[in-house]
Amino acid sequence: MKHIFFTLASARSGTLYLRELFRNNVLDCASRHEPFFDWGNPTLFGPAIYDAFAGRVDRIRARLAKKRVYIEQLPESIYLESSHAFLKSAYVAALEFFPNLRLIHLVRDPLCVAHSETYRQQWRERIHAPFHFYTGDDGRRHFCWALTGNEDVFRHFEGMQLSLFQWYLIQWIEIENRAMKFLDQHQLHDRCFTLHSSADLNNGSKIRTMFEFFELPTVAPAHVFLGGRRNESIGHRTVVTFENERQCGEVLERMPTRYLEIFAREPYRDFGWSSRFKRDQTKVITQPFCFQPRSPNHPTAK
């Protein structure tokens, strides 16, 4: 039986580096990141995200059926796909095709995520990168790696001129709510291991604990090989500013409480940044800057 892993994550949360950790340490493992040119292994970004929003589950099923065929023909007994597409499209039907799937939940400070995603999208637009947008049924251009902006969570901000940073912050909150709902509804907490990015990804002891949790065969059981390719934005650092903090406060003031309730529970409540999400603190901007060595994505372009 194949052991299949997907990630619960937003972009800019260490998904590429997670693939490198599996590639460097786990035996008999086929490690993939974001399959675009992997023949027979369909991507779950772009139009697939719009299909999930529009409720066209049959189209998601068709993609997942092809992915299952691709995975089954691989010689390796372990398959990791570290893409952040799972909670944007695949989750609506994934268990139908991969009932024994295992999950790795990557969580990064949301302001760092939003800042990094903003930079990455703006960078792609500056260099006029091709094939990064598609046209949805609503007639608008959508960024291939992001939600459509038509999801219910965005309706609470109608009439508000959102910055790209705020848009990505709202998306992060939606993705994390999907993560908890998926785990709760399907009772999958015992098949999920959480890593806080980037500290845990650079902690050999934590990574070894994850491998042991999943009972994965490794190259050197007593040692973890860190390092490998990271999806860095060359020449840019993620520096969360007071302006980012102010814009975060505006979002949290308007965000319905039900979207913030998950942050009072595990795994979020022990993270220093989670205090931002306490309803009585959302108007107060007292959090420190967030300095990260890697950075960078308004997915819906005008």
List the helices and strands and how they pair.
Layout lengths: L2 E6 L6 H11 L3 E4 L14 H8 L2 H16 L5 E4 L12 H4 L4 E7 L1 H17 L6 E3 L5 E3 L8 H4 L8 H22 L6 E6 L6 H10 L24 E2 L2 H13 L36 E2 L10
Parallel strand pairs: 1-3, 1-4, 2-3, 4-7
Antiparallel strand pairs: 5-6, 8-9
Helix pairs in contact: 2-3, 5-7, 7-9
Written description of the protein model:
With 302 residues, this protein is of the alpha/beta class. The chain has one domain: Rossmann fold. Helix content is 35%, strand content 12%. It is built from nine helices and nine strands. It has a five-stranded parallel beta sheet with strand order 2-3-1-4-7. Strand 5 and strand 6 form a beta hairpin. Helix 2 crosses helix 3. The C terminus is likely disordered. This is Sulfotransferase. InterPro entries: P-loop_NTPase.
Write a short abstract of this structure.
The protein is an alpha/beta fold and 302 residues long. The protein has helices at residues 15-25, 47-54, 57-72, 94-97, 110-126, 152-155, 164-185, 204-213, 242-254; strands at residues 3-8, 29-32, 78-81, 102-108, 133-135, 141-143, 192-197, 238-239, 291-292. It has a 5-stranded parallel sheet. Strands 5-6 form a two-stranded antiparallel sheet.
